[in-house]
Amino acid sequence: MTQMLKSLLQAASLPCPPDTPDIAITGVTSHNRKVQPGYVFVAHKGVERDGHQFIPDAVQHGAVAVIGEDASTGTALPVPYITVSNGRQAFAHLCAAWHGYPSRDMTLIGVTGTDGKTTTTNLLFNILKAAGHKTGMISTVNAVIGDETLDTGLHVTTPDADDVQRYLAQMRDAGTTHCVLEVTSHGLAHHRVDGCDFDVAVVTNITHEHLDLHGSREAYRAAKARLFEMARTHVLNADDDFSFSHLVTLSAKRRVFYSRETQPNGNYDDWWLYPPRVDHAAGQIEGYAFKLNGERLALPLHTNLIGDYNVLNVLAAVGAALAVGVPVDAVQQGVAAVQGIPGRMERIDCGQPYLAIVDFAHTPNSLENVLIALQRITSGRLIVAFGCAGERDREKRYLMGKAAAEQADIAIFTAEDPRRESIAAIFAEMDRGAANAQPLTAEIMHVADRGEALRQACALAEAGDTVVACGKGHEQSLCYGTTEYAWDDREAMRLAIKGERLALGERR
Fold first, then answer.
1. What is the DSSP string of 441-460?
2. Which entry of 136, 179, 219, 304 is 20 to 30 Å from 49 by CA?
3. In a structure prediction context, what are the per-residue pLDDT tens digits for the chain, which is 508 residues long?
4. 273 and 383 housed in the same domain
5. If 0-12 CB within 10 Å is exposed, 13-18 middle and 19+ buried, where does residue 25 land?
6. Are residues 74 and 176 in the same domain?
């Protein structure tokens, strides 16, 4: 496929100086190693490296035009150079234009939040399928296009703009009518979903996370808010004051509110979802949806997912589904069809007399919620193994150590992507939180080797106990230094139940 440079720039609403030659373009990339003859190379300042330093290499490998943020860079180049204020944003719109803005040909729903994004995305995907819609999904776990499921990477974040637009184009070409896109704060801050035409934006919650990137909770919230600035319909969590107080002020064609605690007060535009009764043992939610005109719609739901936080995830997905016109019976079928989400409260059953769980909880809020949910179904002791990532938000280490010390009976601190940081230093910050627990209920252990930590957790477990590994979930690697080593918590837990230890980088 080829396009002419001028028409591509115009379609992407980018500057097109009068002297720009109208040359044939064969592709767009921001990675110098992906450049092929005829490509446009987009340079931007990255987190660790400045893409402008790779411009000569890109040109040497066949780039016929360059887009960048530094006007002085283009003076000595043998190819056209177009200056933009934001290279990441320009790249996203170029990718969308290259594929003909595919999201405009389908109903696109974006799901963001600190915790619960993947679960809500999967619930909504299943609801839309139950309604008979040809539905695609791009999550931090995988992309579903027709009958094909594609891995989206080792660690959880929204794919780069070129991948997002390529997936959307494949969906459009396959006849997809609806797509659910999980959107991270990194993806929003780095403009990976710019150029997407969002019909609906959904937020789960905004709690403590990613302050290493955003600097403050307010800046983190502002990054999340970008999704709502791009969408026409907003689905908001009325119980999450920090997100709600800001997002409710943003302009929207209509809003849908959902709540576990707050009854409708009349300030709603389309729907207000509220469950007056939840039976966790039976997985029953006695839900109601209230409309602006006073109409009340009975919405009883059955979910196989555990915990109050999953009740909110269900309501978020239901709110988005109602916003795009899904009938009640399809909503009910879709929610009931979700047996579980990979790496989210995933049970590992090898015939052991205790409950073994793998969960992705890696924030203070999600860790506390998971432990509280498991306390309710555990007759014996609650044993948790988890860590905190290196070179990431340091403040949460204190909070997570404190939460585990207050909610568990045994807390084993272990490795979780330490990167280039000392594991002992990470443990020290977690210990400081545990020391301030009120009350301190957990015995604290340090086992740096994650496979050994799970083995010891299972060795301690007796009938009626629960062992939960938190932080990695579905992820397939552990990062030490700058190297990603093969790792799967679910396989490690299966081996640990048998009294064996999964070694770093080992596959069985």
1. -PEEEE--SHHHHHHHHHHH
2. 219
3. 899 999 999 999 999 999 899 999 999 999 999 999 999 999 998 767 888 999 999 999 999 999 999 888 767 899 999 999 999 999 999 999 999 999 999 999 999 998 899 999 999 999 999 999 999 999 877 889 988 888 765 455 688 999 999 999 999 999 999 999 999 988 898 999 999 999 999 999 988 555 556 568 888 888 899 999 999 999 999 999 999 999 999 999 999 999 988 777 666 667 889 888 888 777 888 888 877 667 788 889 999 998 888 999 999 999 999 999 999 999 999 999 999 888 899 999 999 999 999 999 999 989 999 999 999 999 999 999 999 999 988 989 999 999 999 999 999 999 999 999 999 999 999 999 999 999 999 999 999 999 999 999 999 999 999 999 999 998 989 999 999 999 999 999 999 999 999 999 887 6
4. no
5. buried
6. no
- Please give the DSSP secondary-structure letter assigned to residue 266: S
- Phi then psi for residue 346, to 5 deg, are -85, 125
Q: How does strand 24-25 pair with strand 27-29?
A: unpaired
Is 504 inside a domain boundary?
Answer: no
Locate tokens 């030659």: which residue?
21
- pTM, two decimal places: 0.87
Are residues 139 and 71 part of one domain?
A: no
Q: Are 236 and 228 in contact (CB under 8 A)?
A: no
- Residue 169: both structure tokens together: 């184009």
Nearest to 41 by CA among 58, 57, 25, 16: 58
In a domain, 503, yes or no: no
Q: Of the candidates 233, 232, 231, 234, which has an alpha carbon nearest to the alpha carbon of residue 243?
A: 234
Are residue 171 and residue 130 in the same domain, yes or no?
A: yes
Classify residue 162: in a domain, yes or no.
yes
Q: Are residues 350 and 385 in the same domain?
A: yes
Closest of 393, 388, 416, 395 to residue 475, by C-alpha: 416
Q: Which of these three, 337, 363, 381, is where a domain ends?
A: 337
| Shared-domain flag, residues 94 and 106 | no
User: Do 215 and 166 sit in the same domain of this protein?
Assistant: yes
Number of folded domains that form the chain: 3
User: Are the CB atoms for 290 and 296 separated by under 8 Å?
Assistant: yes
Question: Is 163 inside a domain boundary?
Answer: yes
Question: What order do you get walking across the sheet with 148-151 strand by strand?
Answer: 148-151, 142-145, 135-138, 178-182, 107-112, 198-203, 231-237, 254-258, 271-279, 284-291, 296-302
* CA 368 to chain centroid: 19
* Residues found in the chain: 508
Residue 440 sits at the vertex; the CA angle it makes with 439 and 441, to the nearest 5 degrees, is 105
Instruction: Give the domain CATH number at 167.
Output: 3.40.1190.10
Check whether residue 157 and residue 188 sit in a common domain.
yes
Domain span at residue 460?
346-497
